[in-house]
Amino acid sequence: MDRNELKALLEAIIYVSEEPVTLDALAKALKEVPREELRAVLKEMAEATHAPDRGVEIRVVAGGYRMYTKAEHHEAVRRFVRSQKPPLRLSMPALETLAVIAYKQPVTGPEIESIRGVDPSSALATLLDKGLVVTAGRKHCVGRPILYRTSKEFLIRFGLGDVGELPTLKEFEELARAALGEGEMPPPALEEPATEPPAEAVAEENPAEPEHA
Fold this sequence. Notes:
The protein is an alpha+beta fold. About 45% of the residues lie in helices and about 10% in strands. It folds into two domains: about 5-75, Arc Repressor Mutant, subunit A (Orthogonal Bundle); about 90-200, Winged helix-like DNA-binding domain superfamily/Winged helix DNA-binding domain (Arc Repressor Mutant, subunit A, Orthogonal Bundle), CATH 1.10.10.10.
């Protein structure tokens, strides 16, 4: 197939996929196309979607390619979507707990409680149920508490490639309101963001992350 046909095919695949489409998956499905050619075409396609006359763009998030509406159209798109169905909503305690986990991960329940000053059990259950947080083994300390970290679904919801792209806390609050449909969100009691796990918090095991439809 020629380059234009390949672009059309890749666009169709990315459009219908609910999960970010990885280069490995595309290379496996399109064996007749060299891997490097796929990479080059995808880069070209992503750059082309940045044009001002395009309403959606292709971004690299969570290790794959996915389509997103452009930032300048978010408010209008959100109004339309909200008129069709209610957005995914989280309580304030759940949002604050999510922020603590995002910036301190991997982190235990007791550590979250020491930062927020309240028992995070209910908020953790909500975040786990919605797939925004997953367990990440146990911490090597007295009691061996469970460690928590953000999930692939979290990256997708917030349009991030990995946790290294986490914004400032103020920007995170704005993203939370936009991605999860919340109102005012006060800043959680955090110190400077720390996306790198501390040495003493290395997980004993990293269970496979559940897939989300």
